[in-house]
């Protein structure tokens, strides 16, 4: 998953600028549904070729892994004039290394317990 702003947004303005993009080698036939459930702005993924509704075993274009993830994200950002966006990326496989390296903040999360709020960006608690 890639975000163009922090996961925790201290202001409404910052939250309105955040974009969430799923970039995965997983197949679009099921990843698009996850994107809908997560309210993602885009799903960039591997697509399976089909003829008359039957999968052929071939891919449409390249497998979206490794450097292909970076190419697709950069193209998506450029198409929206977001090339200067601060990219936060989270990955859990060797195929994510290039994307994590491209991000301003790249987090390898395999074997990591994630919290709903990033540990280094905790919101202020209300004082009584």
Describe it for me?
By secondary structure, the protein is an alpha/beta fold. The protein has one domain (2-108): HAD superfamily/HAD-like (Rossmann fold). It contains four helices and six strands; from the N terminus they run βαβαββαβαβ. It has a six-stranded mixed beta sheet with strand order 4-3-2-1-5-6. A hairpin with a 2-residue loop joins β3 and β4 (54-60). The longest helix is centred in the middle third of the chain and has 13 residues, at 67-79. The protein is globular. The model is unreliable at 122-128 (pLDDT under 50).
Features:
single chain, Rossmann fold, alpha/beta, six-stranded mixed beta sheet, 27% strand, 128 residues, 6 strands
Number of domains: 1
Query: Which class in CATH terms?
Result: Alpha Beta
Sequence of strands across the biggest β-sheet: 4-3-2-1-5-6
Q: What is the overall number of helices?
A: 4
Low-confidence runs = 122-128
Compute the separation of the termini in Å: 37 Å
Structural category is alpha/beta
Topology of this structure?
Elements: E1 2-3, H1 12-17, E2 20-27, H2 28-37, E3 42-51, E4 54-60, H3 67-79, E5 88-91, H4 97-102, E6 105-108
Parallel strand pairs: 2-3, 5-6
Antiparallel strand pairs: 1-2, 1-5, 3-4
């Amino acid at each position: 998953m890639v975000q163009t702003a922090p996961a925790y947004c201290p202001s409404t303005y910052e939250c309105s600028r955040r974009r969430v993009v799923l970039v995965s080698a997983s197949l679009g036939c099921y990843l698009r549904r996850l994107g809908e459930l997560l309210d993602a702005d885009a799903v960039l993924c591997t697509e399976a070729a089909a003829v008359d509704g039957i999968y052929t075993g071939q891919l449409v274009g390249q497998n979206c892994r490794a450097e292909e993830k970076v190419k697709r994200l950069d193209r998506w950002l450029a198409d929206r004039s977001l090339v200067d966006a601060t990219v936060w990326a989270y990955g859990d496989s060797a195929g994510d290394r290039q994307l994590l390296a491209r991000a301003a903040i790249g987090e390898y999360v395999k074997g990591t317990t994630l919290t709903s709020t990033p540990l280094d960006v905790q919101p202020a608690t209300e004082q009584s």
